[in-house]
Design a protein that fits this description.
four-stranded antiparallel beta sheet, three-stranded antiparallel beta sheet, single chain, 48% strand, mainly beta
């Protein structure tokens, strides 16, 4: 687990510049589902065995595109079924999940379906 910096280059150093990218390796995977009454359910599972993971912090950052106010940030901790339910805001959130041992999940924007 971790976040790694990858460098790709060619032997023709005078012709091509090296390229860099981050590579994220995490044991966590998150899924989303819209719920009635403007709620969104997120489930965190282990990527190796597909089992739900309890006690994972799920951070939802709702960008504020409509005025100069700061983004809305909400944090919840998954239950024994690996689930949390957020009240939805006006925008689609960026989701970041982490535990004390695994902070390598790449923040992503999930569209709840």
């Amino acid at each position: 687990m971790g976040v790694y910096l990858i460098k790709v280059e060619t032997p023709k150093k005078n012709f091509y510049h090296p390229k860099y990218a981050f590579y994220y390796v995490s044991d966590l995977y998150v899924m989303s589902e819209l719920q009635p009454k403007k709620k969104a359910r997120y489930v965190v599972v282990n990527v190796v065995d597909g089992q739900p993971v309890a006690n994972v912090t799920v951070q939802a950052t709702y960008p504020n595109y409509y005025n100069d106010k700061p983004s809305i940030v909400k944090k919840l901790v998954t239950n024994k079924n690996g689930e949390v339910v957020f009240d939805s805001e006006r925008t689609t959130p960026d989701i970041y999940v982490f535990t004390n041992k695994d902070k390598a999940f790449e923040e992503t924007q999930l569209r709840a379906v």
